Amino acid sequence: MHFVDAKGILSARNGMNMYRGCSHGCIYCDARSTCYNFSHPFEDIEVKRNAAELLEKALRSKREKCMIGTGAMCDPYLHLEEKLHLTRDCLEVIDRYGFGLAIQTKSARILRDIDLLDSINRKAKCVVQFTLTTADDSLCRLIEPNVSVTSERVNALKQFRDRGIPTVVWLTPILPFINDTEENLRSLLSMCSDAGVKGLITFGFGVTLRDGDREYFYRALDTHFPGMKQRYCAAFGNAYECPSPNTEKLTALLAETCERTGMMYDGDKVFAYMNAFPRRQLQLSLFDA
């Protein structure tokens, strides 16, 4: 890892990343793509050591409270977070200033901060998001080698449910010819329903591959799934979008299950829910009047 002094921390849409790069090793990682112009090796994590200071300055100057997002481009619970506590420092700032939080991860390390996430949710709103791709822990260790396995993430979802903290699950990517089966999706949906997940995000069923990402993915296929690279090349060539041939069946299964269990699955509605900051103080004032 290496440290930098960042010039800013919040994007125009109030998203932030405390780190840049990743140690999770997921074989399908889009963030490895050359379009993101990494100037250092991907596993050499860039640490924005002044992230909490920049965040406090940004939140202090905001006229209205809003939801702060993190985890879209870099997981806030990388291995080095155990020692650096940079994510926790930023959560403390969000909690102190009464802002909301939408946080996304693949790691059960987030449970370390469940006290802060609970506090943020009680004061404003906190939505915890996990990515789940396969119900099989053994397959998970192949395609996401350095993260918490699926069963650990599902256990974490249940702990957030028990605290009353809403959760969203990203069922993506669903890799063609690998985990794009009805059995896998049915198992994942059952896990999500049991854990009280509020909403699901899919972006369809398949995977996207760009330059940089594609090469890393294909090397992993050669290592763990002999012959699979040739199958991808024959089916998709150099296409960016690689949809599952089972998309129609999987989409129908998703819709039927979510309608029955009450989980949101319309992407626009899920994002709208995550982005909406509750106006509790205003509501209370009107009620008191």
Q: Please, what is the average pLDDT? A: 95
Strand order of the largest sheet: 2-5-6-7-8-9
Q: Which class best fits the helix and strand makeup? A: alpha/beta
Radius of gyration: 19 Å
Shape field: globular
How big a fraction of the residues is strand? Answer: 5-15%
Order of helices and strands: EEEEHEHHEHEHHEHEEHHEHHH
Contiguous low-pLDDT stretches (5 residues minimum) are 282-289
**Individual helix count:** 12
Largest sheet: 6 strands, parallel
Share of residues in helices: 40-55%
Query: What is the rounded distance between the termini?
Result: 54 Å
> What's the β-strand tally?
11
Describe this structure in words.
This protein has twelve helices and eleven strands. The chain has 289 residues and is of the alpha/beta class. Helix 4 (114-123) links the parallel strand 6 and strand 7 (126-131). Helix 1 (51-61) packs parallel to helix 3, helix 3 (86-97) packs parallel to helix 4 (114-123) and helix 7 runs parallel beside helix 10. The N and C termini lie far apart (54 Å).
